[in-house]
Specification:
Layout: E1 2-6, E2 9-11, E3 17-24, E4 33-38, E5 45-50, E6 56-58, E7 66-71, E8 76-81, E9 90-100, E10 107-111, E11 115-119
Parallel strand pairs: 2-11
Antiparallel strand pairs: 1-3, 3-8, 4-5, 4-9, 5-6, 7-8, 9-10, 9-11
Length: about 120
């Protein structure tokens, strides 16, 4: 199983980015997936979650600004990020396969290496 993130970069406050996660070794439609982020000096936090039926959950800090989606045919997970703020600066990680827990409290079995997002 492999998860590879891309799409990160540097953007000014108020701008947008779209993150991609390419999954291989499993079919994206069979697992719940999520985006997490970790800023320097802070704990990792869940950002957005999508289950196998397409139901989504968001952290309060990103509601109304971020949208998680999945293309099961392409085995891709996306995170559309709009109205970005400096507080959104972090390394963003794709995760799949909830082992226990629910939604953003899931313990995930598979993780990508992350992609950096910097908002100035």
């Amino acid at each position: 199983v492999q998860l590879v993130e891309s799409g990160g970069g540097s953007v000014q406050s108020g701008g947008s980015l779209r993150l991609f996660c390419a999954a291989s070794g499993f079919t994206a439609g069979t697992y719940s997936m999520a985006w997490f982020r970790q800023a320097v000096g802070k704990e990792r936090e869940g950002v957005a979650f999508i289950d196998t039926s397409g139901t989504t959950t968001y952290a309060d800090s990103v509601k109304g600004r971020f949208t998680i989606s999945k293309d099961n045919a392409k085995n891709h997970l996306y995170l559309q990020m709009n109205m970005l703020k400096p507080d959104d600066t972090a390394k963003y990680y794709c995760a799949a396969h909830c082992l226990r827990g629910r939604g953003l409290a899931c313990v995930f079995g598979y993780w990508g290496q992350g992609t950096q997002v910097t908002v100035s």
